[in-house]
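Hi, here's the filled form for the chain we discussed.

Project: internal
Contact: R.S.
Residues: 152
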Amino acid sequence: MKLDATDQKLLRSLQQNSKQTTKALALDLNLSNTAVYERIRRLEKQGFIRKYVALLDPAKVSRDFKVFCHVKLNQHIKPRLLQFEKEILDLKEVISCYHIGGEYDYILEIHVENMQQYREFMVTKLTAINHIGSTQSSFVINEVKHTTEIPL
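And the returned structure, exactly as it came back:
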């Protein structure tokens, strides 16, 4: 399905604030409440909207030490890739994991409280996963831009 201009505007608005009322969205889009409600339900049903979440302030929940960790597996056979991915899903410190091309196989975004907690995570959890050949960690000094909005 192709998104029309109204769907795109609605999705941009929801990405900025998903707690807006249907009435507020309807006023912004110059549509009826019912029309907006039906559009949202259609976009949800068709998978354009996957879920609604609250974005937390990492500092307020003591998880503002952000690390990007590159991981290289020692072999690139399917069972090892799948096993690594399965084990990563259980690590709550890992906020995102991407299978990437290039020198490393995966990049992980990790949120912990401090360097000591990161060391503990690396020693007891991440490097305990079988078939990891090497890792390289990059620590965030300052976040210049971070958004959850996908440009439409």
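Let me know if anything looks off before we file it.
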